[in-house]
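Appendix B. Chain record.
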Amino acid sequence: MSDAEWAVVRDLLPVPGWLSGRGGRPEGYCHRQMIDAVRYLVDNGIKWRATPADFPPWPRVYAFFARWRDTGLVTELHDRLREAVRTGEGRSIEPSAGVVDSQSVKADATVAHASRGFDAGKKINGRKRHLLTDTLGLLLDVQVTPASTTDRDAARILLPAAKKDFRHLARVWADGGYTGHLTDWTAQHLGIVLDIVRRPDDVRGFQPLPRRWVVERSFAWLLRSQRLVRDHERRTDTSEAVIRWSMIALMNRRLAARHHHRAVPARAA
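Structure tokens predicted for this chain:
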């Protein structure tokens, strides 16, 4: 991280238990070193054991990653950054609309058979990432499943969890894979209007579809992180944590750039 990026993250970091009097041992390395190491791994797609010697030892870095994954601290930091980005864009902290879609990716040999599947439509053996984003393309929630899981089945888990966290969520745009009883179910049980954006039959080639292009762009953002080009993780919650770390880096850079532009004085006429 640059100094500007660290200045943004430092003020949003969750407070460790030992600092707030909840017990626990003080950490041996500063958060900046650990976050830099995790971001380096996610961005470059290296193995944990290949972590460069400039960073703390890889077992300590992995322990930090696993602790933040299991205690929800990575989600807490991610959500604070998202709220800061939305506030900077003039939006309310809590979104009222979102976009949902899925992406199938090949799984590495390290992924167990029980947590992988075959997507017959995409002809991919691996896992499927189900993303719910706001209208800016920022991640609201993510669920990683075997690639054989249908979009509708995943949405029955993803959307109720999102509604619990975002009470004002009232409309979600989706593609044709979410049609059927799901639209009636979301309206009846969640109070969410599931708006299906269909591809026109007479269109050939690529054409951005209203609202749906937002989440497609979010998938493209994630694939800039080499660790996410394939799924290498043994556990699905680890995959979800890596996705959040990728979005943390993106939002961190965006906020630092905004603060930099504000700090630079206007050039004299």
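Further analysis of this model is presented in Appendix C.
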